[in-house]
Amino acid sequence: MRHGKRVNHLGRTSSHRKAMLSNMAVSLIKNKRLVTTLAKAKALRSFVEPLINRSKEDTTHNRRTVFAYLQDKYAVTELFREISSKVAERPGGYTRILKLGFRKGDGAEIALIELVDYNTFLVGTKEKKQEKAGSTRRGKKKSSKPLSVAKPQTTVSQSNEETVKSKTEEKSE
């Protein structure tokens, strides 16, 4: 029976599980998304969301508490500087889990876990890259105008219709 079973042990010892979740949380914070198994993604969500919630209030105590979990000062800095400013008004639900299918080798269910405010496809705040206005190898300036615009090609059905019309006109004459 599973009375009182609150934590998925993931088939690991306590120290191994804590180290694995810590490393996965650091990867999630640095890369903003992570592909892993569904069970690990669900365990990671319950591990990382309280840390993100703590990062909303930037105090020394909260930084030390988060560092005790993550053991990576660059991830803690990223969390308290960038991520906390994006999730400041969000009341919770900082991560999203998307199921991707099954792994070929062992059939494990694969999922993508990502930070909600960093998904540029769904949010729609895609940043445009600025084109570099430089010179070519020959020393000439690059032109910003397109050289020529090609005419759209006629489709096969249009060209067939034209040939049929021309053949019928020839027969009628």
Number of helices in the DSSP assignment:
6
Write down the secondary-structure element order: HEHHHEEHH
Strand order of the largest sheet: 1-3-2
Using the CA coordinates, give the radius of gyration: 28 Å
Instruction: Return the CATH topology of one domain.
Output: 50s Ribosomal Protein L17, Chain: A
CATH class annotation of one domain: Alpha Beta
Distance from first to last alpha carbon:
91 Å
> What is the averaged pLDDT score?
83
CATH 4th-level superfamily of one domain: Ribosomal protein L17
Low-confidence stretches: none
What percentage of amino acids are in beta strands?
5-15%
Sheet with the most strands, sense and barrel status: 3 strands, antiparallel
